[in-house]
Design a protein that fits this description.
- This protein has about 170 residues and is mainly β.
- The chain contains no helices and 14 strands.
- Strands 2, 4, 5, 7, 10 and 12 form a 6-stranded antiparallel sheet that branches. It has a 5-stranded antiparallel sheet with strand order 3-6-11-8-9, with no helix packed on it. A 3-stranded antiparallel sheet has the order 1-14-13, with no helix packed on it.
- The chain starts with 7 loop residues before the first strand and ends with a strand.
Amino acid sequence: IRVTSPNWSMDNFECIPIGPRTIEAEEYYETSGVDTVISEDGEQFIASIGEGKYANYRLILRSAGTYNLGLKVSCPRTNGTIRVEDGNGNILARYQLPKTSEIGNKERKWYEVNKYVKLNEGVNTIKVFAESYSWDIEKLVFSHKTPAIIEGQDISDTNTAIVENGMVTFK
């Protein structure tokens, strides 16, 4: 719902969250020192990302907001650290990765780590940077953290909406 009138209200409505958007790890537009490999089951992923290496991705969003950024990763060495930055170098999130499998083990143990990040409307550059060596990444999954606003009861941004007597007024 987009409100353009300064004093508008309604009784009941429902927000439908934007579904998750997946970017496969090999769909980067720029990298420094990363290798794409194919797993035993035919899936591509970026393997053994070394300290100081990165992959950049572009994500186009229809609206600014807080998004859950899930990373499907495997960490075959000691604990790893991923830093996610925006296109200006601002840190959006850090992920601490526990060791999940052994070096040389063909069967990687994948898991998803999640953090909330604030993203802008339009084109966003997402840099996935290795702060510590070494981990693998299969995909990035973005989903919008939409507040559930049903029957005018729950609201998370009181700067733009006011709840009074079960009515939501946008100002």
